[in-house]
Design brief:
325 residues, alpha+beta, 7 strands, 62% helix, disordered N terminus, disordered C terminus
Length: 325
């Protein structure tokens, strides 16, 4: 069924491309034929003027007809050659014009499929809890409402993540300003301390102040997702290191957990990539890659459980370490 759907999509794209190319070619043919007719009339007039003294004789008429045929054949040959070249160019131009539209349509279809895939579970839970709570006592109603609210919030977060991934992953999606990666990391660590302490995990932040040209909200999302991922697998400690070298800022987040499963290393930053121990939606690391790429950087897994995000360093003078309040 999937191959059949892809084949139909390809057929639709091919038909649109051919129709658009035919339109380009038709416009060209109308123009070139019109020009050829005008050229034929002008050239034939010049030939008649040159042969005017001999046109009254059969030999003169024969020469005139021969010259006119030669001119017509030359114009037709020229038009056919140009039409062939323009036909190829029209097809290539039509493909180039249709391709972005087709990619946008595929992104929309993928987004709709992702939403349907991810919302199926929370909506099913909400429906099941609501049905089970019918006719129950007030205590069961309160528990049902709490469960419904939790899953509704999770569904909202999932939609927000998918909307982020549906945007262009480049600088056009950002509102840039000078931001301090250390300050963002310190604030993120402070916000994540309660769940970390509850699990008995120590979060250590080290490194100097590093200024980059970026969007603070997105960079905070990057740090939060990386830290949340580390806390999910850490045993007792997570280390966040901020640094820079040459023209590159570097953020690394490492936990002392069992590490990434070998089977996941090739698809780690893809949507819905989840291991056997994962409890998340599988969108966190995909969001991280989106944010880093939008800032012109890269993110990789180094070693067992050390994620390293590299961003272009801002052209600002060094500052003292900034500690979030």
């Amino acid at each position: 069924m999937g191959r059949g759907l892809q084949a139909r999509r390809g057929d639709t794209e091919g038909r649109i491309t051919l129709r658009l190319a035919a339109s380009y070619l038709a416009v060209f043919l109308i123009v070139i034929v019109s020009l050829s007719v005008v050229a034929y009339l002008l050239i034939s007039g010049d030939i008649r003027d040159l042969l005017e003294p001999a046109l009254a004789t059969p030999q003169g008429q024969q020469v005139l007809q021969s010259e006119l045929r030669r001119v017509m054949l030359a114009l037709v040959a020229l038009d056919l050659g140009l039409a062939l070249i323009v036909a190829v160019a029209s097809y290539l131009l039509a493909r180039a014009a249709v391709r972005p539209l087709e990619l946008a349509r595929r992104r929309e279809e993928r987004f709709a499929a992702d939403v349907a895939h991810e919302l199926r579970t929370p909506l099913g839970v909400i429906a099941g809890v609501a049905q089970a709570a019918q006719g129950g006592d007030p205590a069961s109603h309160d528990a049902a409402f709490a469960t419904i609210a939790t899953h509704a919030l999770e569904a909202g977060d999932c939609i927000s993540d998918l909307l982020t991934l549906a945007r262009h992953g480049d600088a056009r999606a950002l509102v840039r300003e000078p931001v301090d990666l250390y300050a963002i990391a310190a604030r993120t660590v402070q916000q994540m301390q309660p769940p970390a302490a509850q699990r008995g995990i120590t979060v250590e932040l080290q490194g100097p102040s590093v200024i980059v040209d970026g969007e603070e909200g997105r960079l905070r999302q990057l740090l939060r997702n990386l830290l949340d991922n580390a806390l999910e697998y850490a045993v007792s400690k997570v280390t966040i290191t901020i640094g820079s070298y040459a023209q590159t800022a570097e953020v690394s987040v490492e936990d002392d957990g069992p590490g990434v499963e070998p089977a996941l290393t090739t698809t780690l930053f893809e949507r819905f990539a989840r291991g056997s121990r994962s409890r998340g939606s599988g969108l966190g690391l995909a969001i991280c890659r989106w944010v880093v790429q939008a800032h012109g950087g890269s993110i990789v897994l180094e070693g067992r459980s050390r994620f390293v995000a590299r961003l272009p360093l801002g052209n600002y003078p060094g500052t003292e370490r900034v500690v979030a309040e």
